[in-house]
Design brief:
Largest interface: A-B, 32 and 41 residues
CATH class of the largest domain in chain B: Alpha Beta
Radius of gyration of chain B: 18 Å
Number of helices of chain A: 14
Strand order of the largest sheet of chain A: 1-2
Structural class of chain A: mainly alpha
Largest sheet of chain B: 6 strands, mixed
Number of domains of chain B: 2
Strand content of chain A: under 5%
Strand content of chain B: 15-25%
Shape of chain A: globular
CATH architecture of the largest domain in chain B: 3-Layer(aba) Sandwich
Number of strands of chain A: 2
Distance between the termini of chain A: 41 Å
Number of domains of chain A: 1
Structural class of chain B: alpha/beta
Strand order of the largest sheet of chain B: 6-7-8-3-9-10
Largest sheet of chain A: 2 strands, antiparallel
Oligomer: heterodimer
Helix content of chain B: 25-40%
Chain lengths: 339, 247
């Protein structure tokens, strides 16, 4: 009964948040609307980080790589071939997926700190390539003047911040819905099982490397699609959008939100980006320090993340005869670093 | 008759330590085979070799006469070699039902069910009776990490059975169980389908003699003796080994 109430309460909160996001552009100014659109794009990358870190048990600092691949693919496509939004999102997702697929051999057998280092290196490598491949990427100057996108063939181009924000919101909501559905399938179940005990999963006959590769490519596609949304929101991109600070902020946001929760990743990434942008004006130069303190406080006080704080107050219902069972280990915010 | 599983001349070394040295083993369909011996005799290493978790430096492992030496643990599990680990290995954040569904899926997938969700539904159908059989029906929806040690052990056995094993490798299944739980475990293992062969590693000789029809004794990585429980019980070699400090 209590679980049912909590489920309805969560659904109600989600609907309220979504309603708030829909009406936001009529409440705030154009500048804030543009910031919100960019934050939504980054929050979607946060979802891909959560999919890898919290669900598949592969902590990552490299999701900016497929994010960048998607953004540049979308920007080049938008400038030279098509200004249709769905085409750009699809191509960006494909670019992110291809880049992720190319890096699968590097990450499929790595775990723990090693995978963090490898993914960090991949992210940095991509930023370096973007800075040097001037003929396509514009180098460190980036690409500017990207035409406004039109969502579908025959529709007008999105000329206002309000329209671009709503387009971004629709795409993010659609993709997050798809991820939530995916996690309810067999694939989601196996990913969670692999995160718990990869050796056991293998001993049950499952092809773990295939599953890990699939999660990596799917997360790459999501990050790539988010890159397309960044182009829509900013109409300008440069390698600076995909640096290490973005990777670190995304991981921080996902940790704060709760790694195993898609909603938590959205909230956490949005909070961190918003905090950074707000602190940038209020405490010039001190934003990283405050974010670091926020990270330490969250991990110490809410190890399962902000959105899972409720779980700390609600014991798992175990039948009376089993109350002497040893409690399970707390879900670590960052998955156990497996050897 | 070709044995279900055979290991021939298996040798495993860890640096200067020889864990197994020229060990032979044959298990036939439906046979209950026990491996006993002192700590460090090589029992778990041999189980690892059979399960595909350890690659021997020498020797061959065959299933139905076919060499499976190059196959990993997952491929061997899909061929019917399932394992119970020394410490219960379950998926702690998944419910007991989900644990069994995960374990059952490879066999369900092998039956080529293409309709979306059909595989998972088929695996779920298998979970209910297994949970009943193990006495875990009332904790079906509880995350496995919240179960007591004995329940996790029973859940792991249910997971192994969900994979429809042909050979079940049991590595000290009674470790850490209460007397009641051991009694239930014995009943459970006796009730296993006769088609399932069992390779049991266990220190408790009363369990070994109660459950097995063939016993192999290892010592220092070599086969000390092999025979029926009665032969092993009366073997002077084995008596000497146990007098020297075994279990």
């Amino acid at each position: 009964m209590r679980d049912e109430v909590i489920r309805w309460a969560r659904a109600a909160v989600a609907v309220l948040v979504l309603a708030g996001l829909v009406v936001a552009p009529w409440v705030v100014d154009d500048y804030t609307t543009a910031i919100l659109a960019r934050t939504l794009a980054l929050a979607l990358v946060g979802v891909s980080v959560a999919l890898l870190t919290g669900v598949a048990g592969m902590p990552t600092l490299g999701q900016t790589a497929p994010y960048a691949a998607g953004a540049y693919a979308s920007a080049v496509l938008g400038s030279r071939i098509s200004d249709v939004g769905v085409v750009q999102v699809a191509v960006a997702a494909g670019a992110g997926a291809v880049l992720a697929a190319l890096t699968v051999p590097l990450v499929v057998h790595a775990r723990g700190v090693i995978i963090l280092m490898i993914t960090l290196a991949i992210g940095e490598l991509v930023v370096t390539v973007l800075g040097r491949w001037r003929s396509v990427t514009g180098g460190t100057d980036g690409l500017a003047g990207i035409p406004a996108v039109r969502p579908f063939w025959g529709l007008p181009a999105l000329a206002t911040d309000q329209a671009r924000y709503l387009y971004t919101l629709v795409v993010v909501a659609t993709l997050v819905g798809a991820v939530l559905l995916l996690l309810r399938t067999r694939a989601g179940l196996l990913l969670r099982a692999g995160r718990d005990d990869e050796t056991r999963l293998r001993a049950s006959g499952h092809r773990v490397p295939l599953q890990v590769s699939g999660a990596h490519v799917a997360a790459g596609a999501i990050a790539g699609a988010a890159g397309s949304l960044l182009v829509v929101a900013q109409q300008y991109i440069s390698p600076a959008d995909f640096g290490f600070d973005t990777s670190a902020l995304l991981l921080l946001g996902v940790v704060i939100g709760g790694t195993a929760s898609v909603g938590g990743a959205l909230v956490g990434a949005a909070l961190v980006i918003a905090a950074r942008d707000w602190l940038f004006g209020v405490l010039p130069g001190q934003a990283p320090l405050v974010l670091g303190a926020l990270f330490v406080a969250t991990v110490y006080l809410l190890p399962s993340g902000v959105t899972r704080a409720r779980g700390r107050l609600r014991p798992v219902t175990v039948p009376p005869t089993h109350q002497d069972a040893p409690a399970a280990r707390e879900h670590a915010t960052v998955p156990e670093l497996r050897p | 008759m070709t044995p279900l599983l055979s290991a021939q001349d298996v040798r495993v070394r860890y640096g200067a330590l020889t864990a197994l040295d020229g060990v032979d083993l044959a298990i036939h369909d439906g046979q209950r085979h026990a491996l006993i011996g002192p700590n460090g005799a090589g029992k778990t290493t041999l189980l690892n070799v059979i399960a595909g978790a350890t690659t021997p430096q020498r020797g061959a492992v065959r299933l139905d006469g076919r060499d499976i030496g190059r196959l990993g643990p997952a491929a061997r599990a899909r061929r019917g070699i399932n394992r119970i680990h020394q410490r219960p290995a379950v998926f702690s954040t998944l419910t007991a039902t989900e644990n069994i569904v995960v374990a059952a899926l490879p066999r369900v997938i092998a039956r080529r069910r293409w309709w979306p969700g059909e595989r998972r539904r088929a695996a779920q159908h298998r979970a209910g009776p297994l949970l009943d059989q193990m006495g875990l029906a009332d904790v079906a929806a509880v995350p496995a990490g919240h179960l007591a040690h004995g329940q996790r052990r029973q859940l792991e056995i249910a997971m192994a059975l969900a994979g429809r094993p042909r050979l079940l490798l049991l590595d000290e299944p009674a470790a850490g169980l209460s007397a009641t739980e051991v009694g239930r475990l014995v009943d459970l293992l006796r009730a296993l389908p006769r088609a399932v062969a069992v390779l049991l590693v266990e220190h408790r000789l009363d369990l070994v003699y109660a459950l097995s029809d063939t016993v192999t004794v290892l010592r220092d990585g070599q086969t000390l003796a092999a025979g029926t429980p009665d032969e092993i019980r009366t073997s002077p070699l084995v008596r000497q080994a146990y007098a020297d400090g075994v279990a």
